[in-house]
Each structure stands twice: as structure tokens, then as C-alpha cells.
Amino acid sequence: MEGREITDSTYPGASQEAVERTLRFALEIVSDGIWDWNIRTDHVKRSPGWYSMLGYAVDGLLENVATWHEVIHPDDFERVMRGFQAYLDGTQPLYAEEYRCRCRNGDYLWVSDHGRFVEFDEEGRATRMIGAHRNIHERKLAELALQQKNQELLELNRTLEDLVAARTEALQQANRALAEQAALALRLSETDPLTQVANRRCFERQVQAEWHRLQRHGHPCALLMFDLDHFKRINDRLGHPAGDRVLVAVAEAVRQDLREVDCFARWGGEEFVVLLPDTDAGAALSLAERLRLTLRRIDAALPMLLTASFAVGAMCPGEDPVALIRRLDDALYLAKQQRDCVVVC
């Protein structure tokens, strides 16, 4: 994701050091390890989480690119270098690779590695790059096991089809069932189990896709975020089962007002977010006002009026999704101060 330029107005009153510390904390929350490469000096600063993930003592390895090369699995090295060089050359819009890293005990751990240029010199040449590693070992092993299983099934199918033509239909049914199970597993992995709307992982993937569509074609896109007011009171007074029923009712009511192309997700707790492709800020504001009134009419057998605070923002060219979400969060915070209102950012 391309980062928005950090200026003095981004965090009023904060020093550059404080701003960078804040952003580093944010990166550590969403990743297992972060790295910061000074391209001029070849110095690479890695977070304690990076060392811990691989079992090394903090700062126990040389802080340079060569250290990274040394821990990459030999079978992955050439592919990773091609992807990395493609980003450095500008032929790829981002650097993102999955590969194995050697741990201190000699084992290899699957990681997801993403990085971006964040600083440039006067001639436009990159001078600094920041990235993050995530531990995807369990997920990757499951994917590889599934691929192996599929390959074994395909080989078995070919053998059985040659030997017993009458079994062809039965084998096709077995394959269809496997595909359906895989599709179901994917849907479940991207669905909030309580409300049955998309989860955060699914939403972030959709936002990335829509952001790239905006960069290529200039189609408008807006986001809408809302948080149920005083939801803690519902849980405290009526119990968590009652709170869960309210969340389900809210999800169903909002879903009925959305289009097929909209992505409606539970962001966390009592907070929800909607991605609105081909929608400008004005249309998103109208929808937010309509949803705000819809939620007030929900009959959830509550001894209090159900209201929500909304934030609405349009996706802007050059502004990455992380910056947009941060902008929405700030606007939602302002809306929560007043309750039952919509703030446009």
C-alpha cells in the first residue's frame, strides 16, 4: 500500500520522532515483525518482533540486507529476489512475497513480506523502504497440504478412469464435493460467524481491490463506518446474548439497504464498515443518513433507543486504504462525541 505523506498537520503538535514512533506501534499491531531499510547505507533496522518470530536474540544478527538473504530458504530465494527487483525497478506496483525464513533452530517458517518506499531524494530516487512480516506458517502448511491432497486426488482419478470407466461419475461427484468444501471453507474464513456479514479480512481484501481499480480507471468509491452508541450498556444491563441479538438485527437491517456490489463487514465489536464502489461522498452521506434512521427503528426489545454514530469518506487517488481508514476512525471519534449523527471526512 502506498503511504500518504506524513506532514506536521497529520499529528498536530507531535515531533517527527513521535509520529514515526506512533506509526511503528501501528505497524507492530498488524504484523509480527517490521523492517526499515536505509537504501543509501544498506542499514536494516528490524523490530524485536521480527527476531522473536524467528527465535533469534534481539539485534542478534547483522542489520543489513545480506542477513535477509541468508535466512531465505534456498528454494524460494530466486523467486523472492525477482519480485523484490521488480518493485525496485518500478515494474511492479508493490513488493509482496510469501516465502520461508530460517529460524535460529534451523527450522523454516513461512512468512508474508510486504514493503513500500517511504522516502525519496531530490531526484526522486528511493532512499528508504519500510515493510512488515507476518507469520503465515499454519495457513501455508494447510494450503500446501490441500494442494498435495488435490494432486493426489487428480492422480488417483486418472488411474481409476483408466481402470474402471463406470466409476467416473462417482469420482466427479467426489471432486465436486471437495471443491464445494473448499469454497465453503473460504466463505467461512471471510465471514463473521455471528452476523454472517463479511469479516475484517475479507473487507481489507475488497478495499485493496477497489483502491487499485480507482488508480487504474478513476471510478469513485466511498467508505462508511458506524458504531452503535452505548452498546456496552446493552451488554451490561441485558447480558451478552441480548447484545448479540442486537448485532444480528443491525446487520440484517443494514444489509437490506445495500447493493449486491457493496461490501458490508463487521469491523470489530459493535463497529461496522461498508465499501461503496462507484459511489461519491454525497451519495454515501445520503445512505448514512438513511441507515442512521433505519437503526433507530429496529425493534430489538430494548428498554432504550438504539442509535449509531457514522463516518463517511471518499477514496482519493494517491491516498492508500490505511490512511483512509485512519481518516474514517478520526471522523467516527468525532461523531461519537455527539452520538446519533454523521460526520464527513
TrEMBL record:
Q: InterPro entries, per this entry?
A: Diguanylate_Cyclase, GGDEF_dom, Nucleotide_cyclase, PAS, PAS-assoc_C, PAS-like_dom_sf, PAS_fold_3, Rev_trsase/Diguanyl_cyclase
Q: Name one GO biological process term.
A: negative regulation of bacterial-type flagellum-dependent cell motility
Main localization of the protein? membrane
Question: EC top class, in one word?
Answer: transferase
Q: Which Pfam families match?
A: GGDEF, PAS_3
Per UniProt, the keywords (alphabetical) are: Coiled coil
SMART domains the record matches? GGDEF (SM00267), PAS (SM00091)
| Residue ranges occupied by any GGDEF domain in the UniProt entry | 219-345
MF terms in GO = diguanylate cyclase activity
Q: EC no.? A: 2.7.7.65
Where's it found, cell-wise? Cell inner membrane
**Location of the PAS domain:** 19-91
Q: Which Gene3D superfamilies does this chain map to?
A: 3.30.70.270, PAS domain (3.30.450.20)
Tell me which cofactor or cofactors this protein depends on.
Mg(2+)
Q: Tell me a GO cellular component.
A: plasma membrane
Reaction catalysis annotation: 2 GTP = 3',3'-c-di-GMP + 2 diphosphate
What is the designated name of this protein?
Answer: diguanylate cyclase
> What taxonomic lineage is listed for the species of origin?
Bacteria, Pseudomonadati, Pseudomonadota, Gammaproteobacteria, Pseudomonadales
